[in-house]
Design goal:
about 325 residues, alpha/beta, 6-stranded mixed β-sheet, two-stranded antiparallel sheet, 13 helices
Length: about 325
């Protein structure tokens, strides 16, 4: 057990012990390895001792290449990365990576597997658990890496129901949102992926509290996952999973058919194009104030409520 670090205590410790063993076999000091991977020597010390920030995927790739690890470190990295997540989140990610079918209802944002890099960056930038730019880049890299499975031979069957709010909220701004909707149209047209939209006028439904995902695993069993703004829950009890699967089936039945859904996505995307020069809310309020004052009408105060003018007492 080198330096008193037990590789069995965590994936970060295992990763660090492998780096130290490979570095020693290569006859490199920590400073020399740091120079070859473009990091300071103390960063190598942190990795080998499983202390400090976890290695990024970029650094894992650099270490793998310099130490001739034959992708060992790159393959270990996702497990190191997930270690900071709660148990239920790690279990869900692990299930997702081997699922043969993914059925998802997205209430607020486009599912991670279908996000553009710019859209994903905007979504990940607002997390309460985000500690800095390095962690943001780490999470972004992990999300983009998981998307690679959609292009692999063992890609899962993917069916997605998007709440209309997902299309209407301009996350990242109009340009980012326009590119994101364009990607949805492309993947739905060129890949075996089903995208449907649940319009506002369908009213209330059983999954209004948040998003829902149902995974079918290689052995035919299923798990479900529900997620809100700051929480998530993995459901593995067969009876409960069947209940959530039925909820998803109802949502899909209430959603627009795929072709009509793509027409709606295209229409919203064109709206972002036309709305490029739409005045901001503050600009519209100022114009409204000026028009009301010129006409002698009632004024608007902040918040949009109308304030009647005082009449002189008789």
């Amino acid at each position: 057990m080198a330096n008193g670090i037990d590789p069995n205590t965590s994936m970060a410790a295992l990763f660090g012990s492998r780096v130290r063993r490979l570095r020693t076999a290569a006859g490199l000091t920590q400073a020399e390895l740091g120079a070859k991977t473009h990091v300071v020597s103390t960063r190598i010390t942190q990795i080998e001792r499983a202390s400090g920030a976890k290695p990024t995927l970029e650094l894992a790739r650099a270490l793998d290449a310099v130490l001739g690890a034959d992708d060992l470190l790159v393959e270990l990295w996702p497990y190191v990365y997930r270690e900071s997540f709660p148990d239920w989140s790690r279990a869900f990610i692990a299930h997702s990576e081997r699922a043969v079918s993914i059925r998802e209802y997205a209430a607020h944002v486009v599912p991670g597997l279908l996000q553009t890099k710019e859209y994903a960056r905007a979504v990940l930038s607002v997390g309460l658990t985000l500690s800095g730019d390095e962690q943001l880049d780490e999470r972004l890299t992990a999300r983009m890496t998981r998307q690679e499975r959609l292009g692999s031979p063992d890609r899962p069957e993917l069916c997605v129901v998007l709440d209309e709010a997902v299309l209407r909220r301009p996350i990242g701004g109009r340009d980012v949102m326009r590119a994101q909707l364009e990607l949805l149209l492309v993947v739905a047209a060129e890949h075996p992926i089903t995208v449907q939209v649940l319009p506002f006028d369908q009213g209330e439904h059983d999954a209004m509290g948040g998003s829902l995902t149902v995974l079918t695993l290689p052995d035919g069993s299923e798990v479900a996952y529900t997620e809100g703004a700051h929480y998530g829950q993995l459901i593995e009890d067969p009876g409960e999973v069947r209940r959530f699967a039925l909820t998803y089936d109802r949502l899909r039945a209430e959603a627009l058919p795929p072709l009509m859904s793509l027409d709606m996505i295209r229409s919203v995307m064109e709206g972002y194009n036309r709305g490029a020069n739409v005045p901001s809310r503050s600009q519209r309020r100022r114009v409204a104030q000026e028009q009301l004052q010129q006409s002698g009408g009632r004024q608007l105060r902040r918040g949009g409520r109308r304030v009647p003018r005082r009449r002189p007492r008789p």
